Amino acid sequence: MKKENVVLSEVKDNTAIITLNRPKVFNSLNSELEVELERIFDDAVAGKKIRAIVITGNGRAFAAGKDISEFVGKGGEGMSAISKNDHRIFGKIKNAPKPVIAAINGLALGGGLELAMFCHIRVASEKAVLGQPETMLGAMPGAGGTQLLPRFIGRGAALYYLLTGENIPAQEAYRLGLVDKIVPPDKLMVTALAIAKVIGQKGPIATKLILEAVNKGLELSLDKGLELERNQWKINGDTEDFNNGIKSFMERKPVVFKGK
Q1: Which CATH architecture group holds 7-200?
Q2: Which residue in the list 38, 70, 126, 134 is annotated as catalytic?
Q3: pTM score, two decimals?
């Protein structure tokens, strides 16, 4: 009997769709899945025709956390190594030169929420449930949760959810700014792909420069961030896409971006 792939991939309209595929265990993130996720993600980033990437889950979950069975007997050093590898893989998503959209179809708990937070945009089903329940196991988040959640929803709210392990319903996640859009379940992928298509029609170099400016700028003072923006503008201003875009606008003609 052929073994099912733990991560699926397809391309629609210049968008790579990556689907976590361990539905029987709510797409829990084990080492096999993460190896495949990284490989497929790297291929999508390298694909010349790919303008955006959507990550979602098969079944009732986006990803309901890490595979706890892989934690047995690891100890402190082993858990630190797992954390380091998660940061490395998920960091690729955060620093990707192409926009990454998390289409949160159901449970996004623990490592699943951390994966979603590393994405650039989060669209959630109205039935989605998010959270960092690690304290219920006497554990703490290790794939970015303690650092990312406060950046999204503020220190107090983040500490509340991190310390209590309480779930965050989709509506509350939207109110807090943890997700950017909530839609009916049957509209989730349509919406995520529509957003990806809209972004994909824009200048790819400008998109890349915006992602870099926001990611790096949030770690800088405002003055340093503005300096970074000026430097990005210098790069942008010398591109063929920018100059053709201005010319097309002035001539009232449609612009064709070449990524140059």
Answers
A1: Alpha-Beta Complex (3.90)
A2: 134
A3: 0.93
